[in-house]
Known about the structure:
- By secondary structure, the chain is of the alpha/beta class.
- It is built from 13 helices and 13 strands.
- The protein has 2 domains: 138 residues, Aspartate Aminotransferase, domain 1, CATH 3.90.1150; 221 residues, Type I PLP-dependent aspartate aminotransferase-like (Major domain) (Aspartate Aminotransferase, domain 2, 3-Layer(aba) Sandwich).
- Helix 3 packs antiparallel against helix 10, helix 5 packs across helix 9 and helix 11 packs parallel to helix 13.
Amino acid sequence: MKVESLVRKNILKSCPYLAGKPIEETKREFGLREVIKLASNENPLGPSPKAIKAIKAALSGINRYPDSRGFYLKNKLAKLYGVCPASIVLGNGSDELIDVIIRTFVEPDEFVLTSESTFLEYGIIAQVNDRKIKRVPLVDFKYNLKGLTAALDKKCKVIFIANPNNPTGTYLNKKEVEAFLKVVPKSTIVVFDEAYDTFIDVNDFPSSLNYIKNKNVIVLRTFSKAYGLAGLRIGYALADKALAEYMQRVRQPFNVNSLALVAAAAGLEDRSFLKRLYRSNLSGKKFLYAQFKQLGFSYLPSVTNFILLDTGKDGYQVFQSLLKLGVIVRAMDEYGLKNFVRVTIGNSWENTKFIKAFKKCLKEIE
């Protein structure tokens, strides 16, 4: 008997998410002593010192199960956003919450709608749950709201919109979002995935928390990016209380570990740390923009902590060449953007090292 005969058919067809290449693996593979990672949009400053202090204080208690309700963190989030704690659902990163949303709301004969060239997990998780996924092509590297509207029908249960979009760094403004929500039926849930909300440097980005009053809007946010807690895996959903209550039925009871809970709660209080990161990101972005212009390469203006760079060549070849030089970026083949690489904005030293390696790899490829 073949093992495949034991596996659900939709799992046989699914492809796992390929994460950014780890630093240690790159060192081993290429015999390198020094490697920088600009592939996964992580915070180059690390976590807040307050978060580290909270983790150390909580270590002796890890023999106990974590607070399943996340009482203290949810209350801090509720106070910050002016919502009730019951409107918040905590998750093992945004990835788990995407899974929870699909399992909670999408029936077998309904489908999930999103865009092409966006966060891959929407499609992967839908397929793992044996739910149909429909994708609409981007227009000018942005979500095509007219296309999404045209794809709507009574079987469309959830729309996932990454705003800003990963991997393009583009965004939908307040006017565009509000016009779109007016045409979406109340029977369809719109999920705004705002993993990069802390980096926004424009004035017309929508205040999405106002839309959860619509009762069919869910907002996802994470502590993995700006807060520097990617290794602890913690995110949260903000939604109408009734929607949130049903999501609570689906999530696992101890899905967020105790160290993540205390680190996130402490990190929320360190506003000066977030301001320092914001300034560092803006400075790094300006530096990389200037370097790309000087080198004659096109890029997409970004409101996030990463830049989508048009290499004018085979992006995967550039990715591989940079690996050998100790720089990890993200190839874009999976996203249908074969000439591009996505570069996380690092600290000043990392950004400089990347530019030097990029110039060198260009010469090698020619």
